[in-house]
Amino acid sequence: MIQPKSLVLALAAVSALAGGVASVSALTPQQTVSLRHANYEKMGKAMKAIGGELKSGAPNKGVVLANAKVIAAVAPQQGKLFPAGTGPSSGLKTDALPAIWTDRATFDGLNARLVTEANKFVAAAGTGDAAAIGGQMKALGGVCGECHRKFRKED
Amino acid sequence: MSATDATQPPAGKVPLWDLPTRVFHWALVALVAFSWWSGENHDMDRHRLSGYTILGLLVFRLFWGFFGSRTARFSQFLRSPGAVATYARGLFARRHTPSFGHNPMGGWSVAALLVTLFTMVGAGLFAVDVDGLESGPLSDYVSFEAGRQAAEIHEATFTVLLALIALHVLAILYYRFVLKTNLITPMVTGKAVPGEGAKIEPVRAHPLAALIGIIIAAAVAWAISRGLRF
Ligand code: HEM
């Protein structure tokens, strides 16, 4: 990432305080891209942490629940972080594909599913049951993967 | 090696590659192809399984490079830069100085392939996909960012691997059609008619050494596949 970590973190904090929506319109395109990257990184980190718990065979309920909540908190913000002018033609460093802006309905649909699955995941995490957590983890991860295949440039 | 061995006249086909080296080679070809396919198709359970098997093969080959038969040993086929340069000049002048075992250039190509394959497998063990869903067994020991970095190395290394394989196959075709030397059949049957002037050395694989190598390789691959959790 080109942006200094501290700026990204400050932006994330600001957006969290301001409830996300209000602050987004005030961000420059570069800041918007940095923020959505930072948010996705947070979700990725949380997914990995949960995966690690599942691999151990006896997942720690506290760790799983805390990370599930991170994903559920971040997920609803992401759809708003793709305003016009933040795609690849903006010249900014982004893996977002132009299809996001030509097929917005599909993109928004996937974002909505992300929120639904993330909330279900918090519920599953609350049970502490490894099988339930594992099953919902696959469903949630499936949405991440589906959207990445459709709307993110393959790295 | 005694002088009498080296000066015996070539009498038909003699053993060139031992069985473990040949099994290693062709199993590797099949598994590299399978890893490519399963990786591209995100069939991660099978991609990991194939990778662990490749890891086992590589560990075995490392062991075999020290305890295998004559032509399989690193000490026999990693030659000085001078020897490589002399050989290369002859090669491009279409003069083939027969080698018994890897020729001075081929030996380094083997080393490059092995190092690249180790890098490939090593990076894969730590890699995490962008969804944070699929990962190598050692990724639990590193951060998400480091895991993503490993995934990028895994991908970049594959390009290098494909280039080396292409070079490898091209070299074999050059031998076959320009130098009229068949390298493929010996890698299958293990036997070859030594080229004129080639120094023949006995190729004998020790079954006990092979067994020890297989046990070490299987143990290492198994332990790493478990993420070193027992
Ligand atoms: C996935 C593709 C391949 C990989 C990764 C690969 C890798 C290797 C490696 C590591 C060795 C050294 C073997 C040892 O000494 O233990 C080797 C040697 C050899 N390979 Fe391959 N190989 C591939 C494809 C092929 C193909 C398609 C052919 C036949 C057309 C072939 C023919 C040979 C031959 C003849 C040797 C001996 C070369 C010499 O005399 O120096 N390989 N290969």
From TrEMBL, chain A:
GO terms for cellular component: periplasmic space. SUPFAM superfamilies: Cytochromes. GO terms for biological process: electron transport chain. One of its GO terms (molecular function) is heme binding. InterPro entries: Cyt_c/b562 (IPR010980), Cyt_c_II (IPR002321), Cyt_c_prime (IPR012127), Cyt_c_prime_subgr (IPR015984). The keyword Heme applies. It comes from the Bacteria. Residues 1-26 form the signal peptide. The keyword Heme applies. Keywords: Electron transport, Heme, Iron, Metal-binding, Signal, Transport. Pfam families: Cytochrom_C_2. Binds 1 heme group per subunit. Heme c binds at C144, C147, H148. This is Cytochrome c.
